[in-house]
Amino acid sequence: MYRDIATKLVNAIQDGEFEVKLPTEAQLMTRYHASRNTIRKAIDLVYQQGLLRRVQGSGYFIANIQLRHKTVVNLSARTMPSSALHPRNLVSKVVTFDTIHTDAALAKQMQIDEGIELYRVIRLRYWHEKLYCLEKAYYLKSVVPYLSPEAVNHSIWDFLNEAYGIGIANSDDYLSLTNLTEEEASLMQLDHGATYMALDSCNYYKNNSLLDFSHTVFVYPELALYFHTTNLANN
User: Fold this and answer.
1) Are strands 209-218 and 117-127 parallel, antiparallel or unpaired?
2) Is the model's pLDDT at 52 over the cut of 90?
3) Burial grade of 133 (CB within 10 A; 0-12, 13-18, 19 or more)
4) How many Cα atoms sit within 13 Å of 1 on the Cβ side?
5) Residues 54-73: pLDDT tens digits?
6) What strand order describes the sheet that includes 91-101?
7) Which residues have CB under 8 Å from 168's CB, separation 6+?
8) Better-predicted residue by pLDDT, 137 or 87
9) 29 vs 62: CA distance, rounded Å
10) Which residues contact residue 212 at a Cβ distance below 8 angstroms, ignoring those fewer than 6 apart?
11) Fewer CB atoms inside 10 A, N or C side of the chain?
């Protein structure tokens, strides 16, 4: 339950509902009909994403990480039940939605055997009518037996959380500069060989079991990448 409340708090922050600070714990307990312990765990999860500043005796203030950039990819937000990685209300254009079996190259990337059945989703995603990214994602059918077309067109992570109770427990993320392949350039109508930022992610759910692998190429203007680091020794 606390993860669901954390997601609602993130959404409220992104929507500007909480502009300066969070309501008190008592107010949040009333708002979400939850215990103090649940609220504290939800707040702590949001704090771990770098969206809050803790001020002793004054509560939690909103950390505005988007003051200098139009779009910030929050790479600290990798354990939320629904994806807090991207801006809200992205519009998706599905290029490919099918099932495949891993070949040698994909099996190596995912560190699984060849011939494993996967859902493959390739999407162009838009933010404020501008191309935001190209996303190629592969979900293990042994974990996700059914993936709905509606979810593919909107939020896959919301669907996985609601249908299967699956969220990201941890992830391995690799940032790199990539040169667009001919296929990628054609899909995004950009120059073949042009250099952009790419994120390769392997996401794991409970017991460190692999859920999916994704390759995302970001092309949105004025994009910024954000990391939040907490020094646990000083907490």
Assistant:
1) unpaired
2) no
3) buried
4) 10
5) 888 888 888 766 544 457 77
6) 91-101, 117-127, 130-140, 209-218, 195-205, 170-179
7) 78, 79, 80, 157, 203, 204, 205, 211
8) 137
9) 19
10) 137, 138, 139, 140, 202, 203
11) C
Both structure tokens of 80: 């939320």
How many helices (H) and strands (E) are present in the chain, helices listed first? Answer: 7, 10
Nearest partner of 132 among 92, 95, 94, judged by Cα: 92
DSSP track, 115-184: T-EEEEEEEEEEETTEEEEEEEEEEETTT-S---HHHHHS-HHHHHHHHH----SEEEEEEEEEEPPHHH
Helix 2-14 crosses helix 25-32 at what angle (to 10 degrees)?
A: 110
CB atoms within 10 A of CB 112: 18
Domains and CATH numbers, the chain: 2-64 (1.10.10.10), 71-226 (3.40.1410.10)
pLDDT value for 83: 52
Which residue type, as a one-letter code, is found at position 136?
Answer: K
Q: CA nearest 202: which of 173, 227, 166?
A: 173
